[in-house]
Design brief:
Residues 18-72 form the HTH cro/C1-type domain. The chain has helices at residues 9-25, 29-36, 40-47, 55-65, 69-80, 87-90, 97-108, 127-136, 141-155, 171-174, 181-194, 245-261, 265-278; strands at 111-116, 164-170, 200-205, 219-223, 230-235, 238-242. With 280 residues, the chain is of the alpha/beta class. It has a 6-stranded mixed beta sheet with strand order 3-2-1-4-5-6, with helices on both faces.
Length: 280
């Protein structure tokens, strides 16, 4: 028997939509599972995105729920594309598996919130800044260029319609000397220009801000149209992904605290412009 592939965010999103449809009928998991001759755990796992769902299973559920026409075609179509690969799934030499997973999640998210106290968020980095940081971090030279290519492709997600990006950056990250004055000047200019785009917002947390949960370290909060949010926490040479409410909740609360101490978008632009003048 061929093992099932591990479900991704698309499976979780489809499961959430099917659960919402069941809820509108007023019927329980036990009731629907019994009607289809399934076990209760099977339907529960499908609705929670714990395993991929086959088109035939979606069709059976939609028949019970009375869903027809365009909506039926859309949901069945979703089930057929759960394993459709993006560039991250095809793979690039030198690209860690954690980076590929993050890119996959980013491609499905409706909102990305990135908090970085000491670095410019990856989706806002210039290639020169990224190269300087990677070399300073001890990444082998033969891996740097492939990782740069992957980073550049990841950044294309900011052009996707319907995506909102909020980069919250510690002032210390903007005052660092990564790559030298010329690299930092270009990086600050890039942040300022990207922050003028409708879907991109940048907020700076001043160095003299009172204590807040974000001081522990950086993270990215990824929100989806129907699936549960995911938190990405980068570690040395690896990363972790959290999607259970007890684990993601503290990060959502941390962002609320960061939102309270961060400068407004306009004030942040003014600070960035001031730092640029200091470098010239």
């Amino acid at each position: 028997m061929v093992p099932r592939k591990k479900p991704g965010v698309r499976a979780r999103g489809l499961g959430a939509e099917l659960a919402a449809l069941r809820s509108t009928t007023g019927r329980t998991v036990t009731d629907i599972a019994s009607a289809l001759g399934w076990s209760k755990s099977t339907l529960s796992r499908l609705e929670n995105g714990l395993r991929n769902i086959e088109p035939e299973e979606v069709s059976a559920l939609l028949a019970v729920y009375g869903v027809k026409g365009v909506e039926r075609d859309r949901l069945i179509g979703m089930s057929k594309n759960l394993d459709e690969p993006g560039w991250w799934a095809v793979g690039l030499p030198g690209l860690p598996s954690e980076s590929a997973t993050l890119a996959s999640y980013e491609s499905e998210a409706s909102r990305l919130i990135s908090w970085e106290p000491l670095l410019v968020p990856g989706l806002l980095q210039t290639m020169e800044y990224t190269r300087a940081f990677m070399l300073g971090d001890g990444i082998a030279l033969d891996q740097v260029e492939m990782r740069l290519m992957a980073r550049l492709r990841r950044q294309q997600v900011l052009k996707r319609a319907g995506l909102e990006f909020l980069g919250v950056i510690g002032e210390a990250a903007l005052r660092s000397g990564v790559g030298g004055p010329d690299v930092m000047y270009a990086q600050l200019k890039h942040i300022r220009e990207r922050s003028k785009e409708r879907s991109v917002s940048v907020r700076v947390v001043p160095s003299d801000s009172p204590a807040h949960p974000g001081m522990v370290g950086g993270f990215m909060l990824l929100e989806f149209p129907t699936a549960r949010p995911v938190v990405h926490v980068e570690l040395a040479r690896t990363a972790v992904f959290l999607d259970e409410a007890p684990m993601t909740g503290p990060y959502q609360e941390a962002f609320e605290r960061l939102d309270a101490v961060a400068l407004s978008a306009r004030e942040s632009q003014q600070l960035i412009s001031g730092l640029m003048r200091e470098l010239r």
